[in-house]
Amino acid sequence: MMTIAISLARRRSITSAILITAVILIGVSAIRFSQPAFVGVPKVLTDFDAFHIAGRLAAAGRLDDAYDADTFLIEQLKVSGIESFMPWTYPPPFVAVVQALSYLPIGLSYALFTGLSFAFYLLVLRRIAGDYLPGVLIAIAPILVINLRTGQNGFLIAGLIGAFLLALMSAREKRAGALLGMLMIKPHLAVSMGLMALWQRSVELLAIAVAVVVALIGAASWLYGFAVWTAFATALRQATGFLELGYYPLFRMSSVYATLFSLGAGPRIAIVGQALCAIAALAVFVLALVKGTTARYRSALACAVAVMVSPYCYDYDLTILGLALAFIIPDILSRSADREVGMVMALSWFVGGYGLVAKILMENVLHLGENGAVLPAQAMAPALIAPALLILCCWMALILLRNPLNVSTR
């Protein structure tokens, strides 16, 4: 973040530095994906490897194998020679995207997907934040690094959400409906966006969203056959079981479920806690809609709620949090002293970077799971992102309730 006093030239130089760093990171990561020995590191599977493997299976007519956890893990083993745990649970329409990418070598495929989705995210973020873009990018820097390094789709999803909210604000209902329909590739992050659409009471918006969803389902069914939905449903059931067993890296999740589970609560208690959190967040959001807050505040709250509903939400999904900050950063700065702004930024870095730091410590210091082996939840670091995220959101909400400070006191 930064104070309002920073010059436009300084802001541009900060943005340029961030972009150059991102390009370098994409280039190095592309080499690590394709030729890790060239940079002196072993092959380690990350998220985009799973994308590429699923795409290749789909291209070979073996998409059912991607949705079968045991078979998919064997395919991952063939690529890296080490055991990993990355089940495939994306809906069939997204498979068409990764299949198209799989025809390219993995390094080029990763660079294309990550570069284009990052550019899309930046364009949307720039439209929301305006001249405050550098401050937003600095505040979410750890989240940017995670997505740039792993090739996850956090930029794509957040870009679609941000574009949807911008379309709503400008009363472009057809565009908003189309963008909302596209979010079916990660529907658990779009619940609050669906509520926003319902609140608009626009038949046209909702009809277009439904039409897009139907079209995507139809296209995927035509490409892979109707039976693919049975395989997809099976994969979701398997993933639910894995989540209940604590097989996923909970310390990288931003859900209350992950926090409670990692601290010793059983899956039933953890899911009750998650349900209560989701209900409370949605209730606050509905109350804000009823009371008629500004469009920017509604949009920021929708983004915050989006990452609090599902038990399955990772740190790379917190690119959505960058959208929330972009909507409200001018008001945050005008109501906070510089010291408090720094504290908010530090907390934002903790939320975005805790999972990354914990993973590095576990692999390099504690030597746990360094070969991708599945660890029990008790052996992992505690999942602390959710409480920090709740504190951050509540803190910023309290700041927004204040009157603006006198600029001369800053």
Q: How would you describe the overall organization of this protein?
A:
The structure is a single chain. With 410 residues, the chain is an all-alpha fold. It has one domain. The protein is 70% helix and 0% strand. The chain has 19 helices and no strands.
Quick tags:
single chain, 19 helices
Walk me through the topology:
Blueprint: H1 8-34, H2 47-59, H3 63-67, H4 69-80, H5 92-102, H6 106-129, H7 133-139, H8 141-150, H9 154-169, H10 173-182, H11 191-200, H12 203-224, H13 228-245, H14 256-262, H15 267-291, H16 295-306, H17 319-334, H18 338-364, H19 385-400
Helix pairs in contact: 1-6, 1-7, 1-8, 2-5, 5-12, 6-9, 6-17, 7-17, 8-18, 9-10, 10-12, 11-15, 11-16, 14-15, 15-16, 16-17, 18-19
| Alpha-carbon distance between the two ends | 14 Å
Overall tally of structural domains: 1
Please give the share of residues in helix: over 70%
In N-to-C order, the SSE pattern is HHHHHHHHHHHHHHHHHHH
Summarize the structure.
This protein is mainly alpha-helical and 410 residues long.
